[in-house]
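Input (Transcriptional regulator, AraC family):
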Amino acid sequence: MSRRAFTRFFRRETGVSFLDWRQHAIVFASLPRLSAGQPVTSVALEAGYRNIGAFTTMFRRVIGLPPKRYAQKGRPSAKR
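Output:
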């Protein structure tokens, strides 16, 4: 199956583009790592991104927050 045929089939069957699905999968796989306190750089590299800024931009577009802020929000505050 050609790439073009696959992307058309994927969109028809799922209702989303393969690229959008892939990005959401990467973000949701990254959430537990970020919540556990792993550095954004290591999470991005493990996700296959060589450019940390690209990972951050994609993460922000999907979640609405940059990964570092998401990680801080997900952990208990030291001021409590």
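Confidence is low (pLDDT under 50) at residues 76-80.
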